[in-house]
Amino acid sequence: MAEHKIASELSQKAYSDTTKYKAMEVAHAFTEGLMEQLMTCVQNHKSYMDDWDQDEFCVVYVVAGDPLIKNLRRRKFYCWPYLPSPRPNQTVFLYNKRSERIIKRLWTLPVDQSMAELSTPGLIVDKPYKDMQRWSVSFFRGTFWSDIRKEHDIKMLSQEEWDALNRNKIVELGLEDADADRSQPFDFSKIQVGQLEDAGEGILSQNG
User: Which end of the chain, N or C, is less packed with Cβ atoms under 10 Å?
Assistant: First the structure.
């Protein structure tokens, strides 16, 4: 029988690893199998999404920390019938029911420190980071929703707008208390350039 190491053992191994890794190599490894997991998430949420009369919904991918193991990072996937509140370490895709596929990536936001740095006035970045820079600037400028809708030519509502419009149906379906499980907006007033995350980030867990 194959031996499976627990998260704390993997965490300790990551702390003791002194190998230098290239950032893009880490990024590619981190997103390995991402599309498969996104589609698994879609299948798990399809019955709920069918309750709402709309052709498209969002598939959200978030990298979250662990409250007990400092350098553990978990991949979390979920679907919403609206544009989720933006937060660090978040990527949002648009799924079309009729074509039964993900048709585009709406945005990707990096870690909080990177968002702040990318939004520095006059900062010039390499091509792979231009999209994230644009989205980060849009967030801090306070025009995120209008910019996203214009960029992707969509009219999807934000979470707050959608809740207000569908309040009666939410109550009818018994989902009036579901807000606690929804994505929470991040308080970016706490972010300052120079605030660094712990350098020992190396373990990945998954929560679909």
Answer: N
Number of domains forming the structure of the chain: 1
Most confident option among 13-27, 69-83, 86-100: 86-100
Q: At what angle do helices 144-152 and 130-141 cross, to 10 degrees?
A: 140
* Run of H or E including 76: strand 72-80
Which tokens go with 88?
């660090």
Q: Residue 138, CB half-sphere, CA atoms under 13 Å: how many?
A: 20
Residues spanned by the domain of 120: 20-176+185-207
Amino acid letter for position 102: I
Sequence-distant (6+) residues with CB within 8 A of 107 are 86, 90, 91, 92, 131, 135, 148
pTM for the full predicted model = 0.69
Q: Are 10 and 70 in contact (CB under 8 A)?
A: no
Which residue's entry shows tokens 């969002």? 58
Q: What is the CA 92 to chain-centroid distance, rounded?
A: 6
